Amino acid sequence: MSDIRTLDPEVEAKMEEISTKFERYISNQKSQIIKSKEDFKNKLQHLRNEYKEYGKELQSLAEREVELNKELAKEVQDKNSSSSRLNELKLKEETLIEDRKNLEKQVLDLSNQVNERRQELNKLKISKEKQAERDIPQVLIYEQVLSLKIEGGKQGYLTFKFHNIDPKNTEREFQLNLKVDGSKYEDLSTIPEISQDDVNELLIKFNETRNLNSFLKNARQAFKKMV
Question: Disulfide check for 179: which of 15, 37, 163, 187 has CB 3.0–4.6 Å away?
Answer without folding.
Answer: 187
